[in-house]
Amino acid sequence: PTHLPLLTEVMLKHDADGDKGEDAPAAAERCARAIAAADAIIAAVDVPALASHYGVKHDSSDPAQKKVCKEMDKKKDALIDALLVKGARTAELLAPAPPGG
To answer: What pLDDT is recorded for position 7?
Structure first.
């Protein structure tokens, strides 16, 4: 599926902080699901088209251009969220275990 709102909701469902008593395998599984969901969003967004769009100035008075800009903004926001989730959960996976835990 490439429907960004659906992919974003799936990612947000999996991107939750773990409980204090969460064991390492459960935390790793939770992080892996969040990273996989973020990867699905990253794959669904046409990054070169996004870069091309933001590389030029657009006519803000043209209604058709406004619609395109709004869609590109949604794609950009989804991409940013996915990259943030992927980075945060990767860091969580790589972080050393807390002492005494």
So the answer is: 94
Residue matched to tokens 């046409």: 46
Tens of pLDDT, residue by residue over 1-44, are 689 999 999 999 988 877 777 888 888 999 999 999 999 999 99
Residue tagged 């619609």 (tokens): 67
Answer yes or no: pTM beyond 0.90: no
Q: What is the b/e burial string over 24-43, where b = at least 16 CB atoms within 10 angstroms of the residue's CB?
A: eeebeebbebbbebbebbee
Q: For residue 2, count CB atoms less than 10 angstroms from its CB and return exposed for 0-12, middle for 13-18, buried for 19 or more.
A: exposed
Task: Give the Cα separation of 48 and 33 in Å (integer).
Answer: 26
Query: Measured between alpha carbons, how far is 42 from 59 in angstroms, rounded to an integer?
Result: 28
Residue 59 predicted with pLDDT over 70: yes
